[in-house]
């Protein structure tokens, strides 16, 4: 007769909090509850209409969304981006206000209601001078101007 050696390992119950020790029914119960909740969530039917809107407003919301989606095109995005990025517009400058008004008008044209611009008084730290200078081994001062890139109107 030969001998066989079996190795067993156990993680024990040390990893369980004292509340769960000795409650063998808890694990099957948790699995059963999870199954019931999962099946119940899957059996739910989709609500008629548009989620988040009462039925009277759902049709007007769908019409607004259709109009908005119909106005989206790559060319329109390109044109709008060019308009927005054509001139610097730091916060608080006249150009910033112009773009805020333009954006408000665009939103209104899309059919959004009650589009408003709100003004807030804030402290904005505008630099008086911007410079980069190297003093050693040789003195050099950066021009702070980007070299023009052929084909890029914004660097000309």
Model description:
- The structure is a single chain.
- The protein has about 160 residues and is mainly alpha-helical.
- The chain has a domain at about 75-120.
- It has four helices and two strands.
- It has helices at about 25-45, 55-70, 75-85, 95-110, and strands at about 135, 140.
- It has a two-stranded antiparallel ribbon with strand order 1-2.
- A hairpin with a 5-residue loop joins strand 1 (about 135) and strand 2.
- The longest helix is centred in the first third of the chain and has 18 residues, at about 25-45.
- The model is unreliable at about 1-15 (pLDDT under 50).
List keywords for this structure.
156 residues, mainly alpha, two-stranded antiparallel ribbon, 4 helices, disordered N terminus
Short structural description:
By secondary structure, the chain is mainly α. The radius of gyration is 33 Å and the shape is extended.
Q: How do the strands and helices of this protein lay out in sequence?
A:
Elements: H1 26-43, H2 55-70, H3 74-85, H4 94-109, E1 133-134, E2 140-141
Antiparallel strand pairs: 1-2
Largest sheet: 2 strands, antiparallel
CA radius of gyration: 33 Å
User: What fraction of the residues are assigned to beta strands by DSSP?
Assistant: under 5%
Shape: extended
Secondary structure tally: strands: 2
Per DSSP, the total helix count is 4
pLDDT averaged residue by residue: 77
Distance between the termini: 94 Å
Instruction: Work out the helicity level.
Output: 25-40%
Q: Which spans have pLDDT < 50 for at least 5 consecutive residues?
A: 1-13
Structural class: mainly alpha
Major sheet: order of its strands? 1-2
Order of H and E elements:
HHHHEE
